[in-house]
Amino acid sequence: MKAAINRDPVIKPVRPVPGDTLGIVAPASPFDRNKFQAGVQVLEDMGFQVVWAKDIFEKKGYLAGSDVHRARAFHAMFADPEIKGVICARGGYGALRILPLIDFDGVAADPKLLIGCSDITVLLNSLVYTCHLPTLHGPMIESLASASMATKQAFSLMLSSPTPPALTAATPRVIRPGKAAGTLVGGNLTTLCHLAGTRFAPDFSGCIVLLEDVGEQPYRLDRMLTQMKMGGGFDQAAGLVLGSFKNCGTLDAVHAIFTDIFAGSPFPVMAGFDVGHDDPNVSVPLGIRADLDTEQGLLEFTESLFC
């Protein structure tokens, strides 16, 4: 059974503001310490206090410590009343392994904004679907170290603006025209595909689905989309928005795959949004409602990310 969006009630996080404390977790792969420190400096320059557990630098092969260690650290940050938001150090791989260990009731009891992307897609969407808690698809500590000013400004604006955000496609490409309304979900295509067949597989019914990826050859994108489509994953989707597909072949090749696979679908498909592994990586909320208009190249959110 797939996890379905439940809109009533939605538990929204409190907005972190300068002076507040952000906690860092490493639920997936280990990371570069120098980039970590540089990313921390970016947050501190924005006015935030930043904390992390002393054992965040643990390693277990390609993982940032054991599954139990990473899950425990995740819980600790959400349980700490002094922490107003949680940002991930890096993606890579490993978040999938801790999903069965997450205490979602505990997370919902003290809702905070979770920030990340890439492999963190599984956590972002699981909090949306299981806790009904919106999350933020955005840069992580390691990538903040070398992020462009556009990425950092978009991240800061997402946290500070009192009005719901709007995102315009930087290089608009209409694959299927139309308008759509629904809750934005999704993120990294490969990671979402790996949720298929599990109890954490998201149900995209009535949702606008964000997809992006990095380092996947066109045939692999085709294979993953075909698998998800054959499994009924997109049957009731409201629309698709495509972010960056860095090092995935030419954009024409990537867009041709989506054009072919979704040729008979009734919903709009819009490409060209600066979201994902490339730079800029514009921050976008998951778990709140948005309107998609392919004629205007606009993804406009119709409610606030924060309470």
Q: Helices and strands in order, then pairings?
A:
Layout: E1 21-25, H1 33-45, E2 49-52, H2 67-79, E3 83-88, H3 95-98, H4 104-109, E4 113-116, H5 121-131, E5 135-137, H6 141-144, H7 149-160, E6 166-168, E7 173-176, E8 179-188, H8 189-193, E9 207-214, H9 218-230, E10 239-246, H10 251-261, E11 269-271, E12 284-286, E13 289-293, E14 298-301
Parallel strand pairs: 1-2, 1-3, 3-4, 4-5, 8-9, 9-10, 10-11
Antiparallel strand pairs: 5-12, 6-14, 7-11, 8-13, 13-14
Helix pairs in contact: 9-10
What does this structure look like?
With 307 residues, the chain is α/β, with parallel strands linked by helices. The protein has two domains: 21-160, 3-Layer(aba) Sandwich (Rossmann fold), CATH 3.40.50; 166-301, LD-carboxypeptidase A C-terminal domain-like (Glucose Oxidase, domain 1). 30% of the residues lie in helices and 23% in strands. It has ten helices and 14 strands. Strands 6-14-13-8-9-10-11-7 form an eight-stranded mixed beta sheet. The protein has a six-stranded mixed beta sheet with strand order 2-1-3-4-5-12, sandwiched between helices. Strand 4, helix 5 (121-131) and strand 5 form a beta-alpha-beta unit. Helix 9 runs parallel beside helix 10 (251-261).
Describe the main β-sheet briefly.
8 strands, mixed
Shape by Cα distribution: globular
**What CATH first level of the largest domain would be assigned?**
Alpha Beta
Strand elements, count: 14
**End-to-end C-alpha gap:** 30 Å
CATH architecture of the largest domain: 3-Layer(aba) Sandwich
